[in-house]
Structure formats: structure tokens, C-alpha cells
Amino acid sequence: MKAYQLGSQNGLESLTLVERDMPVAGPGEAVLKVKYVCLNNRDLQILEGRYGPKKAEDRIPFSEGVGEVVSLGEGAAGIAVGDRAILAHFVSWIDGPFEMRYFGADLGTNLDGWMAEYVKVPAAALVKVPDNLSDVAAAPLAAASLTAWHAVVEVGQVRAGDLVVALGTGGVAMAALQIAKANGAFVAITSSSDEKLEQARKLGAGYTVNYATHPDWAAELQRQTGGRGADIVVETGGQHTLPQSINACAVNARVVIIGVGSADGPLPNYGGIIGKNITLKGIAEGSRAMLARMVRAMEATGFAPVVDRVFSFDEAVAACQYLKSGAHLGKVLIKAS
User: Is 78 helix (H, G, I), strand (E, B) or coil?
Assistant: First the structure.
């Protein structure tokens, strides 16, 4: 089969197209024919050698996609040949609270990922894609969308009428917008692009702030909301945006910190955390059980990820370059078959 490998991890051009043996399903495993691969910011960090220690050069990268089950190993259950399926990239996190050991089985880092014509995964981790979801809608679900679901629903405990703030217009932010709207919440989006903010408004954002023209974007958001502030903040910016996220909060807000962005910046406003009784919680993607709940909600409500652009299998490097450019709004996909 055709597959890509990480290579030297000195830049996006390290991504190398090779021929690999077809994977064979062992006990409890499934082999999927890959239909679409979805790119995430951490995939770029890995290729550039910025995501912890460098990985094996022959590792097949990328942590998210959708495929069709073509074979099952002995004892594999809960899925059938012919089913379309997805899975969270922490493949051993089936249910319950997060544990550090889940980092030990991670698609695209220490396990081969999706950037191939076929992928082998634990069958127990798979979630069947319902018939009313297309492959394009399903491909971006198990990383950015699941992270947004974890933030807004599982941790944020969103309720109708809440105000959810999402930073930026990337995959997590756009998924948070749609998940929040599906739950009857108001949404605010920040961006440095007026064009992207206009698109966010068309997708249902009730409040938008350009942080390039309003560097104190939290104050501008408080002004727009009449001082109400945010009940949930999906914090994707990093440590340098955290103080403003706290300033944007209402009393008893939940700030959910996601592992992307810069770790450099001023310390948070601790007085604001205590004075407003704010909860700060870091999260890492989500479990299979969370993914199944999100897919069920999508089946019921019809919300789907925003897809910006689809590249061909041979354009994998160009797809990475496009994602890094920041020109996208929503998700960038690669069509594998």
C-alpha cells in the first residue's frame, strides 16, 4: 500500500511517500481502508520536531480520519466488516477519567496513524459512523471535534442560554461553536480576521471580536455582552491568552485549557480566578465513550464539522502547508480513496 512516513521531522517536507506492507489484523484488531484523513495542529508540530521527543522516522503520521472496516482479527467485536468507523487517537481510553497511561497508545505518535491507504487499530476503540453522516463530516470528529465536545459538554456542562467563547477559527473553535449552538447556547468567537469573523457569524456566532483591532478583547467582549461575560471559555490560545480568558469570564465560569498554542506569557489573574469562583481544567482529547455520545448527538441534531478544503492523497505536504498558513476556517482534509 501507499503510505507516508514522518521522516527526519525537520519540517513539513520531511513527510515522505513510501510503499508499505498491508497491515494484517491480529487478535482484537481491525483493518480499515482509509477514506479521508483530517489534519490537526499537533500533526504539524510533530513534523517540525516540536511535539516532545522526535518519533520513529518510519512512523505513519496523523491522528484522525474515517475508514471502512475490511478485516477483523480473532475476538474483535462491536464492529463489522463493511462498517464505516472512527476512533479517538488515545486508543486505549475507552471510558472513565483520563489516566497518564493513555499517552502510551496514541495514533500518529507511538502508533501508526491514518496517513496511508489502510490502517490497523484496536477494534474496541472504534465507533460506527451512522448512515446520515457523510465521510467528509465524519473524518474530523475524533480529534478537534471530540476535544471541543469534551470542553463544552463534558467539562463545561453547557446549558441553553450559556455564553461559550472559543478562541480563533480553527477546528476546535468551529466545532465548539456548532456544539454550543446545538445545545441552545450563545457563542462568541475571536480572530484577527474580519473576514473569518463574518463567516463565524454566518455559522451562528452571536458575538465576534477582532483581537488585532481590540488587543484587550476581553474588555470588548464584556462591553458587547453588557458585562455578562462567558460561562465557558474554550482556551486554545495558550498561556499568553489565559489572563484575558479569565477577564472575559462571568462568575462561576469554566475555562477549559487545550494543549495547543504558546506556553509563554504572563501569569494568570489569580484574583479573578478566586473572586469569580472560576474553574480551570486542562483536557486531552476524549474517550471512546465521549466520542460515541457526540456521534449520537450529531445523528439527532444534524450539526457537522466545518470543512475548509480537501486535498488529494498526493498533495499531503501541500495540505500541511495550507494548514500552517492559517488561511483555513475549520478543517483541512486529505482524500485517501
Answer: coil
Predicted TM-score (pTM) of the model is 0.94
CA angle 150, 286, 303 (to 5 degrees): 55
Cβ-contact 321, 315 below 8 angstroms: no
List pLDDT tens digits, range 103-155.
999 999 999 999 999 999 999 999 999 999 999 999 999 999 999 999 999 99
Pairing of strands 331-335, 29-38: antiparallel
> Which of 261, 290, 258, 302 is CA-nearest to residue 88?
290
Positive or negative, the CA dihedral 89, 294, 244, 220 is positive
CA–CA gap between residue 3 and residue 17 (Å, rounded): 6
Residue given cell 517536507 in the structure block:
13
For residue 140, count CB atoms less than 10 angstroms from its CB and return exposed for 0-12, middle for 13-18, buried for 19 or more: buried
Residue keyed to cell 483493518: 31
Q: To the nearest 10°, report the CA torsion of 286, 287, 288, 291.
A: -30
Share of the chain above pLDDT 70, in %: 97
Residue ranges with strand state E in 173-239: 186-191, 207-210, 230-235
Quick one: CA torsion of 194, 199, 201, 207, rounded to 10 degrees? -40
CA angle 334, 124, 105 (to 5 degrees): 65
